[in-house]
């Protein structure tokens, strides 16, 4: 018989003038795993960045084509209308692990939930969520609104939603320090008796992070402007990337890698 339960999770608005919020979600026990992503899809589908829906679909289609080509699959124009329609109707949630569940931490996992179309929509960098991922030793470039939730999950029979509060959102919070230590060279974290490094999470310099992200965005913009204005440059890149959309997808992948290497 299904029962009602609830848990608290965090909402980190992209607009850093707005406070981080604690939100409570009530769910049925038979939908404990899927309840949060279903709720967040409804949030993200309403977010519109600085690109039109048609531009978002076109960029995603080009990225899909490029990915398929790498696997030796040819997506022909005959399929384009159907695929674009599917992309228009789809809204997924990306889940980024910040703290991995291990036997030594009671199988406790903390995850970051973001819009899978955030980059394509052209939404701005979420500095606070990006800082959190860096502090945890798992740097990602978080675009748009973000959410953080906690659960117990042993990848077998155990799955239980837990609470995460505003007081947990701090670079020196115990779970952040543990996540950073486990990720950046602090041993296996598996409870097997391996020696764990005492290295603590390094503080994240907000100004430096924002400056670095702005520099990367300027670099992308300059390359896209060069595509538009420099015929030789455009012809050379067209041979390799086929279209401006695919070229931009390549640039964005480079930005993601550079953000992942960010370290104080």
Written description of the protein model:
This protein is of the alpha+beta class and 264 residues long. The protein folds into 2 domains: 4-45 and 91-203, no CATH class; 205-259, no CATH class. The chain contains 9 helices and 6 strands. It has helices at residues 35-44, 53-70, 80-89, 118-121, 127-135, 174-183, 206-229, 231-241, 244-260, and strands spanning 4-12, 21-28, 93-99, 108-115, 146-153, 159-162. Strands 1, 2, 3, 4, 5 and 6 form a 6-stranded antiparallel β-sheet that branches. A hairpin with an 8-residue loop joins strand 3 (93-99) and strand 4 (108-115). The longest helix has 24 residues, at 206-229. The chain is globular. Residues 186-202 have low confidence and may be disordered.
Q: Which key features would you list for this structure?
A:
single chain, 264 residues, alpha+beta, 2 domains, 6-stranded antiparallel beta sheet, 9 helices
How would you concisely characterize the structure shown here?
This protein has 264 residues and is α+β, with helices and mostly antiparallel strands.
Outline the low-pLDDT stretches.
186-202
Straight-line distance between termini: 51 Å
Residues in helices, as a percent range = 40-55%
Q: How many individual domains?
A: 2
Strand content: 15-25%
Strand elements, count: 6
* Integer-rounded radius of gyration: 20 Å
> Total number of helical segments?
9
- H/E element string? EEHHHEEHHEEHHHH
Query: Can you summarize the main beta sheet?
Result: 6 strands, antiparallel
């Amino acid at each position: 018989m299904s029962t009602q339960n609830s848990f608290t999770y965090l909402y980190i608005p992209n607009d850093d003038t707005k406070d981080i919020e604690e939100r409570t979600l009530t769910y049925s026990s038979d939908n404990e795993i899927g309840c949060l992503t279903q709720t967040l899809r409804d949030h993200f589908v309403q977010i519109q960045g600085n690109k039109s829906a048609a531009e978002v679909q076109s960029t995603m289609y080009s990225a899909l084509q490029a990915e398929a080509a790498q696997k030796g699959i040819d997506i022909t124009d005959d399929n384009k209308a159907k695929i674009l329609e599917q992309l228009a109707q789809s809204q997924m949630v990306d889940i980024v692990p910040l703290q991995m569940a291990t036997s030594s931490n009671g199988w406790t996992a903390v995850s970051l939930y973001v819009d899978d179309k955030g980059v394509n929509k052209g939404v701005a960098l979420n500095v606070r969520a990006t800082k959190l991922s860096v502090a945890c030793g798992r740097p990602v470039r978080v675009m748009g609104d973000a959410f953080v939730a906690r659960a117990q999950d042993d990848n077998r029979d155990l799955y239980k939603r837990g609470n995460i509060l505003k007081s947990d959102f701090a670079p020196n919070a115990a779970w952040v320090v543990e996540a950073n230590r486990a990720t950046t060279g602090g041993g296996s974290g598996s409870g097997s008796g391996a020696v764990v490094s005492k290295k603590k999470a390094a503080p994240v310099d907000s100004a430096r992070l924002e400056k670095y992200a702005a520099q990367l965005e300027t670099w992308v913009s300059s390359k896209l402007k060069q595509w538009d204005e420099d015929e030789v440059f455009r012809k050379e890149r067209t041979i390799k990337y086929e279209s401006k959309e695919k070229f931009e997808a390549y640039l964005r992948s480079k930005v993601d890698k550079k953000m992942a290497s960010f370290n104080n």
